[in-house]
Every structure is written in C-alpha cells, then in structure tokens.
Amino acid sequence: MTRENDIGTSGGTGEAERSTPAPPPVGGVLWSIAGDLRAVMSLPAALVMQVAHPAVSAGVDDYSVFRTDPWGRAERSLRSLQLWVYGGERAAEEGRRLRRLHASIQGTDAHGRPYRALTPDVYAWVHATGFPVYQHAQRYLGRPFSPAQERQLYAEWLRVGRILGLRDQDMPRSPEEFWPYYRAMLRDVIEPTRISQELTSLDLSVPPPDRGPAVLRKLARAAWPVLLPPLTRARRFLTVGLMPPEAREAIGLEWTERQERALRRLGKAVRAVVPVLPERLRYLPIAREARREARRTGLGPARAAGRRKWPALRVTGRPPSPGDGLFGTGAEPEPDG
User: Fold this and answer.
1) How many Cβ atoms from other residues are within 10 Å of residue 245's Cβ?
2) How confident is the model at residue 66 (pLDDT cuts 50, 70, 90)?
3) Model confidence at 274, in pLDDT bands (50, 70, 90)?
4) Average pLDDT, rounded, for the chain
5) Three-state secondary structure call for residue 81
6) In this structure, are residues 110 and 59 in contact, taking their beta carbons and an 8 Å threshold?
7) pTM for the whole thing?
8) How many Å separate Cα 59 from the centre of its chain?
9) CA-closest candidate to residue 24, choices 102, 96, 82, 98
10) What are phi and psi of 115, to 5 degrees?
11) Within 13 Å and on the Cβ side, how many CA atoms surround 317?
12) Which of 26, 66, 82, 227 suits a disulfide with 286, CB 3.0-4.6 Å?
C-alpha cells in the first residue's frame, strides 16, 4: 500500500535527456497515482474539459471513433496514457506515434475557424487539463496534495508533455504560471461545445461492452437496457463532480449542493476501500507490470531520478488509431492513505 511520504518529490530533466524525453520518475507522484483505479474515475472530467475547446471538439467530432467504437477507443486511450508514465523506453516511442496520428487531423470548427490538432496552443490544452483534474479529484478520492507534491506533479506532467512532443515554451513552466494561463483559457476559449454537451448528456447512447470474457459480454448484452440508465447517470455524476468548479462553470454544467454531498460520501468510501486492495485489483495492467518490474530490478525512487534506463515492458494490444490518442484522454487520482 502506497504511503503519502513514499511519493517522490525529486525529478527534473537535464539537457541531455531532452532529445529523448524521459518518462516521469519511478516512485514519483504520477507513478503512484496514474495507474490506480481511481484514475479511471476522473478521466471523463479531463476529456470533457478537452473537448470544450472548439478546435478539439471539432477534431473529435470529425475524426474520433468514440461513437462507433467507444469501448475499443477507451481501451486504446488508457493503454496509451499508461505508456506515457509506465512505458519506460517505450514512452517516447508512444509520443512520436501519437504525433504522427494527429498530424493529419485538421478542419474547420463550429465558428468557421480552421484548426489543426498539432497547433501548439490546441495540443497543449489537451495535455494541460490533466493537472487541474488530478489536483481536484485528489481532494475527494485521496488526500490533498501537499505543496511539494503539487509542484512535483506539475514537473512530472511537463515531462509527459515532452514525451508527447510539446516544447518547453508551449506550456507554463511552473504551477504559479499555470493558473493564470488556465483561468485565461476558461475565460476566453473554453465554451459549451457540441461534444462536451454530448459527453455529459443523460441520453448518450453507448452499446454494451464488446470485450472481456464471452460469458460476461453475453450477460451485459442481455441486461444492457436495465444497466445503461444507471451507468449513464453515474458517468455524468463523476464527470461533472470531479471536474474543477471553475471549468464546470465555463462549460455550463450544473452541480448542486446535494450532488456535492453525495460525491463527498462516495470519496470517503473510495478512500477507505481502494488503498487496501491488493495490487492486482488496484492498478491497471501496464502500471501493475511496471511496478512489479521496478521491484524486481531494485529501481526505486532515489535511483530513478538519475538513470536513463527504465524497466522494459512487454506491452501487447492494438496500437492507437486516429482519434484514439491525445484528442480524448486525460488522467487522474492520488497519493493515498
């Protein structure tokens, strides 16, 4: 079980590392939280913030397969996100693949303005949303970050940005610089878009799961008319509740005091249950394998900060397809208790 004081507060990336960006350090903040099951709970909040940018909304509307293959898209996006943090030497390779996938994504947004997915301010916003969502969701699903942890989380998120091909000048360099940028984006750019409204609608139509054990797929198909309405309500509840209030307001999403109390009760239960789960149940597969490999090789936080070799993972599965990558992922959960 991860303890709060086990979360790393060292890091940084030297000039020699920048040509081949290093993933976040083993034992760091992201190492502790990004593969935790609670991360999955907060991903939809980051996704809706992303698609509230008119250019991102248009790109997802034009290119994403989230309507026709929602389960496959979610699986591939989760796999990609996990590689950024836990992929070791494969992290930079995954970042290059995502840039290639997004290079052809372009068109016209709902206001008639041309957009390109790799325009720096657009690409940076998609990545930037993870930081405030991590910070906000942590207050419910774990213990709030200390100032040192928050600063380290941001430094590690910048590392992930480099993996994704963002230049240092594309992102604010510190939390102090981030928050004015973030507020300006919410004030001047973010708005209720077609896709943000669709993803927070209670009428969103989702087919039954098409992956997993055959017997479970069969049962899900049979029970789907009964299961879908409560699952849709739960999805919207978590999406809106785990979104920072200022972003929620900019996107035009209602949140009541009654819902806030319910989210706090849920968070209390999650904080009690998840930290005591065995690792095989608590962490997603790529994170679980990376943590196991780090223990096997003795690569701990103190050694990780200065090393350029990371555990090699045997990652299987289909690589992301256009519309499955950065235009549609986010991240988030905790240093627990």
Assistant:
1) 12
2) confident
3) very high
4) 85
5) helix
6) no
7) 0.83
8) 18
9) 82
10) -140, 155
11) 20
12) 82
